[in-house]
Specification:
The protein has 178 residues and is an alpha+beta fold. It is built from 2 helices and 5 strands. It has one domain. Strand 2 and strand 3 form a beta hairpin.
Length: 178
């Protein structure tokens, strides 16, 4: 008896049909909004993992310079493309570009700006990313040399100052709103 089908002897009224359609539309709208939010969360996670991959590669290259007793390796890494030290290039990496027009780069692509010497990622889910700069929403990453400033002039002087390491600097805040 529990599984007996209840049959209506009449068709649905217009009001009942409208309520069913509205409920389905509300559920579908909620589903689409949630999917967009989850896609943005996935992009934020992928960006975070890529930065961690870059940091790991930089630490490895810096350690190699320290082990070999060759500080020039450390100084050379600081001014280079961080993708060269990573285990794998980021998904969507299109290479090193000189004279790049940021508007011509597609969302989701990475490139190394040879003129400015930073790695750039163009954000796909701009509705969830707060960007305060000009142009398309992007994240810029640059390598900074950490050194012992022996002559205390505030700049790195090869042969005088001693490189101690390299740091991955994120120049644009990673401000995601979920």
């Amino acid at each position: 008896m529990a599984f007996d089908q209840i049959r209506m002897d009449r068709p649905l009224s217009r009001l009942e049909l409208a309520v069913v359609v509205l409920l389905i539309a509300a559920c579908f709208t909620w589903f689409l909004n949630r999917m967009n939010e989850m896609t943005a969360m996935a992009e934020a996670t992928a960006l975070d993992l890529t930065v961690r991959n870059l940091r790991t590669g930089i630490m490895s290259a810096t350690a190699m310079g320290l082990i070999q007793g060759n500080p020039e390796i450390i100084a050379g890494v600081a001014g280079s493309n961080p993708v060269g030290t990573a285990i794998d290039p980021p998904a969507g990496y299109i290479g090193a570009i000189r004279g790049v027009n940021p508007a011509s780069i597609q969302p989701g692509q990475w490139y190394y700006d040879e003129d400015a010497r930073w790695l750039v990622y163009h954000v796909v889910n701009t509705d969830y990313f707060i960007y305060g700069g000009d142009g398309p929403a992007r994240v810029r990453i640059q390598l900074k040399l950490i050194y012992n400033d022996l002559d205390e002039n505030g700049t790195f002087d090869a042969g005088v100052d001693r490189p101690a390491g390299t740091s991955v600097m994120i120049l644009d805040p990673l401000d995601w709103r979920f």
